[in-house]
Amino acid sequence: MISFSAVSKRYPGGLEALRGVSFAVEPGELVFVTGPSGAGKSTLLKLVPAIERPTSGSVVVNGQNVGALKRTAVPYLRRNLGLVFQDHKLLYDRTVFDNVMLPLSFGTLAPRDAARRARAALDKVGLLARERANPIQLSGGEQQRLAIARAVVNRPTVLVADEPTANLDDESARRIADILLSFNQVGVTLLVATHDLALVARHGRRVLQLEAGRLAAA
Amino acid sequence: MRTWLRQHREALGRALGRLAAQRAATLLNALVIGVALSLPAGGYVLLADLQGVARRGSLEPQISVFLKRDAERGALEKRLRADPRIQALRFVSRDEALAELRVAEGLADIVDTLEQNPLPDAFVVRGADADPAALGALAGVLRALPGVAHVQVDSAWAERLAALAHTGRLALGALAVVLATGLVAVTFNTIRLQILTQREVIEVSRLLGATDAFIRRPLLYLGLLQGMAGGVLALAILAAGLAVLNQGVSELAKAYGSSFRLAFLSGPDAGALILFAGFLGWFGSSLSVSKYLR
């Protein structure tokens, strides 16, 4: 499903964020990526949807070599992935419902079906009652749940989440973790970067530990 | 295909939504385009009317041959009728000429003050060949005939008018190119600002799987619609300008016994103006999108 082979990433200016990282994530697996700040967690996650390209090595997602993908093919790769960002990346000029509808507007789904699916996603994360609200009116935990609803609305096979519980209180973090786990339980592959060691310990799943861009434990 | 059409419809809807959300800016931009387009469009109307007048004048080129007081009219007429270069001939006596002058507006009082008729007899000649050079040659021959006092080629003014219209057309073309470039620049900048204000939406859309075409489409529609709105405003400005000008023009024309009025653009021309304005908007938008949405 996801395979990294000797992946290195050097940013312009010389910063080497990843050095020879290799690992594989099997379909339906939940894998945590941990490590201190600057270890390369976010860079690793950005390589999966081709937000960044590897400097060397290969990243294969759903059978596609992401590093070799043409620019025009990237959007179609991303539509099959669910992305949850640390800063949510919600749009505050539109409603909760419209935020979830956004990824569906690029696709082929008829508007009525798209609306039905968006409401189902909001229901899944417990935000259906807030569909007409503006995201700015939501709490941090609710905003992250909204970001998850938007990430899963296209029914992706892989969900990539960068620090989904960062800056949240314990209750909100636990709720987010439960939602993510529920998707994993129905077969969605999850790659989650986190600082939250309690979260990692509670679920007892495989952990990729990064240190200074190298995979210290897998 | 249905999805493609739906996405175009939605992009058009989003573009209309953005225009409606920024009514004042939209109106001002369209006004800039409208004013700029109305100048060459107005020039086009004036030139078309001018060329129409010139064409009517030069279609029936005439030569007036004024006779000396002691001219042998009969002999001269016989000679003219025998000339194959002359298609038609009409004699205008000095009395008829004075009578025509008397009915012209404002001249009756002046004519009445004359003690005697100062006008000469004349022949109005229509050449068989309407070519200016042939007419010029014919006028030279007529000038040399005995009993001829003066020869005047009546189409000369029409030729001068046509030459003036040709020069005007060149100047208008240059003006249109300059203003069209300006309009492209206006749209380019408007779309650049749109891209800046929509940067967050564009970034998030890209992260979630929007194609370049999906992101560009509403911006291209925005340029197209803004251009077309400018075209419609240009027509409105032109119509208002012509209405004002025609008050003066009809007064002037009446003084010459004419019902001439400046004509508005024809339906196809008006449609072409709107489409051209839309094209300029789309082109400016396209340049901006190519530069700022890499």
- Radius of gyration of chain A, taken over Cα atoms and rounded to an integer in Å: 17 Å
N-to-C order of helices and strands of chain B: HHEHEHHEHEHHHH
General shape of chain A = globular
Give the % helix of chain A. 25-40%
Helical/strand content category of chain B: alpha+beta
**Widest sheet, order of strands of chain A:** 6-7-8-3-9-10
Record field, number of beta strands of chain A: 10
- Trace the largest sheet of chain B across and list its strands: 2-3-1-4
Sketch the major β-sheet of chain B: 4 strands, antiparallel
Radius of gyration of chain B: 30 Å
Count of alpha and pi helical runs of chain B: 10
Separation of the first and last Cα atoms of chain A: 17 Å
Principal-axes geometry of chain B comes out as elongated
Number of strands of chain B: 4
Structural class label of chain A? alpha/beta
Summarize the structure.
By secondary structure, chain A is an alpha/beta fold. Helix content of chain A is 33%, strand content 26%. Chain B is 73% helix and 9% strand.
Protein model, in words:
The complex is a heterodimer of chains A (218) and B (294). In chain A, a hairpin with a 5-residue loop joins strand 1 (2-10) and strand 2. The longest helix of chain A has 16 residues, at 170-185. Chain A is α/β, with parallel strands linked by helices and 218 residues long. Chain A is 33% helix and 26% strand. In chain A, helix 3 (96-105) packs across helix 4 (111-124) and helix 4 (111-124) crosses helix 5. The two termini of chain A are 17 Å apart. Chain A has helices spanning 41-47, 74-79, 96-105, 111-124, 140-152, 170-185, 197-203; strands spanning 2-10, 16-25, 30-34, 56-61, 64-65, 81-84, 158-162, 189-193, 206-211, 214-217. Chain A has a six-stranded mixed sheet, with helices on both faces. Chain A has a four-stranded antiparallel sheet with strand order 2-1-4-5, covered by helices on one side. By secondary structure, chain B is of the alpha+beta class. In chain B, strands 2-3-1-4 form a four-stranded antiparallel sheet. In chain B, helix 2 packs antiparallel against helix 7 (156-197) and helix 7 (156-197) packs antiparallel against helix 9. The longest helix of chain B is centred in the last third of the chain and has 44 residues, at 212-255. The radius of gyration of chain B is 30 Å and the shape is elongated. Chain B starts with a helix and ends with a helix. The model of chain B has no long low-confidence stretch (mean pLDDT 86).
